[in-house]
Amino acid sequence: MNVEFRNLERSDGASGGVIFDEAAALLEAIQVLRRDRVPFMAEVVGENGNKLTIGIAEDIGCVQHAASDGTPPYLMAVESTKNRPSEMSFLVGGTPTPVEPRYLISAHAVDSVVSEFCTTGARSRSVNWTELGP
Question: For 11, which of 16, 83, 93, 109 could close a Cys bridge (C-beta 3.0–4.6 Å)?
Fold first, then answer.
């Protein structure tokens, strides 16, 4: 499935949307972005009407799965890990945006979720999902 990668870090509206047709190429790009950067958010938008909003940092991140049109449900990936910071923020539009620690997952888990989404278009079964409340 083709997906569009959009960098949400910048405040000037330049999302840097790039189309990827292979999960491996997108994961390689994400690996490059993880190096020597302040943590930031990005979107991976599928042609199937769903998207992932991902937090990208060196060894940790977060993933939200939702419809591309913004309608609920909004599902957050969760995993049981003891090695997560007590607080973490990702740049969105130039503004540090905090993410609750329970939604922080390993970079490896982020990659697994992104890979499965790109390959199948489905929500990954490699992590658990919890619905964000109103």
Answer: 93
Residue 115's SS3 state is helix
Sign of CA dihedral 107, 111, 113, 114: positive
CA 35 – CA 93 distance, rounded (Å) = 20
Residue 109 token pair = 């888990």
Q: Are 103 and 47 in contact (CB under 8 A)?
A: no
First-last CA distance in the chain: 31
Q: How far apart, in whole angstroms, are the C-alpha atoms of residue 111 and residue 10?
A: 22
Q: Which of 6, 1, 63 is nearest to 29 (CA)?
A: 6
Please list the residues that pair with 42 across neighbouring strands. 7, 54
Assign 59 a pLDDT band (cuts: 50, 70, 90). Answer: very high
Mean pLDDT of 59-82: 93
How far is the C-alpha of 97 from the C-alpha of 80, rounded, in Å?
22
Residue 125's contacts (CB-CB under 8 Å, 6 or more residues apart) are: 116
Q: Find out whether 96 and 89 touch, Cβ atoms under 8 Å.
A: yes
Is residue 14 pLDDT above 70, yes or no?
A: no
